């Protein structure tokens, strides 16, 4: 058997990866040509690669490592749980202590009246659960025609057939014949990119009212639910105008539409509250969770369900749905330990009082750069638009994402992982990041943007 270790030369590891590994969201041939980066270890907010470079991870992995890397308490809890009960299922009249404890703990931190959880192993699976759950709920309520779920263009809700259908990403729909039937997409509340001459408040209302128009067109008796992230993450860190969420809540209430808040990114402290719904002051019926519930140390996803909805489900026969790893004991034990750390180390207070205000101030400095517009942050999420003309809120003429991609490459060269969504640059650092580390992150981001700007100027593209 091949012995493959951290100590092998990078080139050998790269060759093996290229020979055997199909990467998610990746153009395989391009990756082979560029060579993959091999991350070997991580601590705090820093990653180390196989060449010994230290890179500040401003994306918390994939928006998930909320308490930072290297917390050995989680490893110890996982080892203990593996020794005691490595696996058992929660089907067929059985349960176990870690899943009982996690469900009960989630009920304590979730908004009032949301005391039930259905578990999965990822956000995508949880959103698949949500599709079946809300449709089953309305059928149980004697309204079997209430089946349509309204989502938004440029939303991201996962990569399974259901998750990608809820999502509003056209390139994803184009592969595999999506969306599945009964899913409708309205426009997103992205004022900087799509607001035209409206002011943000007016635009927020207009975009929310598309939900009402859609409900009126389809008929209230046909629409089951509306799903959205409190703040869009993978769509580009899009923070809606203040008028948006109150209007969405009014529409859902008046038309008896279930509100699903996808908290996969916004949950577990990202906004300074346990959930983004609390920061946005909305009252969801279901919250999708994943990522930060374990800080990424184990795969857990789930749906936190309002009691009134759970009661209907419980009273109407069997819900024919579940995953082998729903409520996996090791993953549940790790989630509990992560939630203990967030609570005992007052991570939410750190976000609210220290990290988020510091990030907002430091990030705002990027707005002084001639190529940067739309400087936004909320809690520990931040984004900027790269633009050839910030006054006109213009987009680059080159194919969308070209400039963003160049900038992302300059980020790696400058020792920081940021992500580009089109020509927006975004960050989502670990919640435990210190003010000094935030300054380092923003300094490196500035250098990456500025080097991109210089490249464009050298090529007469700016
Ligand atoms: N919803 C949102 C808002 C997400 O950001 C993601 C992942 N980026 C998902 C769902 C899907 O989660 P997973 O990748 O765990 O399936």
TrEMBL record:
Cofactor field: pyridoxal 5'-phosphate
Entry keyword Transferase: yes
InterPro entries: Aminotrans_3 (IPR005814), Aminotrans_3_PPA_site (IPR049704), PyrdxlP-dep_Trfase (IPR015424), PyrdxlP-dep_Trfase_major (IPR015421), PyrdxlP-dep_Trfase_small (IPR015422)
Record bears the keyword Ubl conjugation: no
GO molecular function terms noted in the UniProt entry: pyridoxal phosphate binding; transaminase activity
Keywords: Aminotransferase, Pyridoxal phosphate, Transferase
Membership in a protein family: Belongs to the class-III pyridoxal-phosphate-dependent aminotransferase family.
Protein name: Aspartate aminotransferase family protein
Organism in which the protein naturally occurs: Psychromarinibacter sediminicola
């Amino acid at each position: 058997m091949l012995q493959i270790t951290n100590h092998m030369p990078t080139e050998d590891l790269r060759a093996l990866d290229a020979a055997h590994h199909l990467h998610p969201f990746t153009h395989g041939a391009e990756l082979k040509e560029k060579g993959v980066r091999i991350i070997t270890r991580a601590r705090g907010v820093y990653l180390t690669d196989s060449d010994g470079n230290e890179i500040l991870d401003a994306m918390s992995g994939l928006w998930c490592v909320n308490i930072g890397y290297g917390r050995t308490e989680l490893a110890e809890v996982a080892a203990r749980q593996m020794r005691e009960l490595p696996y058992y299922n929660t089907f067929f009249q059985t349960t176990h202590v870690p899943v009982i404890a996690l469900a009960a703990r989630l009920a304590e931190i979730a908004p009032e009246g949301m005391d039930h959880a259905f578990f999965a192993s990822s956000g995508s699976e949880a959103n698949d659960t949500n599709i079946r759950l809300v449709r089953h709920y309305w059928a149980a309520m004697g309204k079997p025609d209430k089946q349509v779920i309204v989502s938004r263009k440029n939303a991201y809700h996962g990569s399974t057939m259901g998750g990608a259908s809820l999502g509003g990403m056209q390139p994803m729909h184009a592969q595999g014949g999506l969306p599945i039937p009964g899913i409708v997409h309205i426009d997103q509340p992205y004022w900087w990119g799509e607001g035209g001459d409206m002011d943000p408040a007016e635009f927020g209302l207009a975009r929310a009212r598309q939900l009402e128009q859609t409900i009126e067109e389809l008929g209230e008796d046909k629409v089951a639910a509306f799903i959205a992230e409190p703040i869009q993450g993978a769509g580009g860190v899009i923070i809606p105008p203040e008028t948006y969420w109150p209007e969405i809540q009014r529409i859902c209430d008046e038309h008896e539409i279930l509100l699903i808040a996808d908290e996969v990114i916004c949950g577990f402290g990202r906004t300074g509250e346990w959930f983004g719904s609390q920061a946005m002051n909305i009252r969801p019926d279901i919250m999708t969770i994943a990522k930060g519930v374990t800080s990424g140390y184990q795969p857990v996803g789930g749906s936190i369900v309002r009691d009134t909805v759970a009661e209907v489900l419980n009273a109407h026969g069997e819900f024919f749905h579940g995953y082998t790893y729903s409520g996996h004991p090791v993953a549940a034990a790790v989630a509990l330990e992560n939630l203990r750390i967030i609570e005992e180390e007052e991570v939410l207070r750190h976000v609210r009082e220290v990290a988020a205000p510091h990030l907002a101030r430091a990030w705002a400095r990027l707005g002084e750069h001639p190529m940067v517009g739309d400087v936004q942050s909320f809690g520990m999420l931040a984004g900027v638009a790269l633009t050839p003309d910030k006054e006109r809120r213009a987009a680059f003429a080159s194919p969308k994402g070209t400039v963003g991609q160049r900038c992302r490459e300059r980020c790696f060269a400058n020792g920081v992982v940021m992500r580009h969504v089109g020509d927006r640059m975004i960050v989502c650092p670990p919640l435990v990041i210190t003010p000094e580390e935030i300054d380092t992150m923003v300094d490196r981001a500035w250098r990456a943007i500025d080097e991109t700007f210089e490249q464009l100027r050298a090529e007469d593209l700016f």
